[in-house]
Design brief:
The chain is of the alpha+beta class and 116 residues long. The chain contains 2 helices and 6 strands; from the N terminus they run αβαβββββ. It has one domain: hypothetical protein PF0899 fold (2-Layer Sandwich), CATH 3.30.2320. The longest helix is centred in the first third of the chain and has 18 residues.
């Protein structure tokens, strides 16, 4: 379960950013999680409260945007969802593809309460 390490890195990154920018309180952390990134969003959300305990992020929410894993077929140029079609092009059946989105994972936004 590599999600523990990922959440720890999120906490370090956001905490460092808050300290460097004089931010005393954070309401939400928003991350993008690609469908093909091998990161399981539910695990992130389950682990987040445990890892953030005792930190500036202890009472924050973690919002996860799931980014679809999209690809373009190298044979017929069809654009399709890789997971939905089990890696094969729904138009021609080819397995040859170029991944367009869904492999990345990253922090998208840090929301601070009004007045902060």
């Amino acid at each position: 379960m590599h999600e523990i390490g990922i959440v720890r890195q999120i906490v370090r990154t956001v905490t460092d950013f808050a300290q460097k920018n004089g931010i005393g309180e954070i309401a939400e952390v928003v991350v993008d999680c690609g469908e093909l990134s091998l990161v399981i969003p539910k695990y992130l959300q389950d682990i987040y409260p445990v890892v953030t305990e005792g930190t500036i992020l202890e009472n924050t929410k973690l919002l996860v945007n799931e980014i679809p894993g999209m690809a373009e077929c190298d044979e017929c140029d069809e654009i399709f969802n890789v997971v939905e079609h089990k890696g094969y092009c729904p138009a021609c059946g080819s397995f040859e593809k170029t991944i367009l989105s869904g492999q990345d994972f990253g922090i998208r936004e840090i929301h601070v309460p009004d007045g902060e």
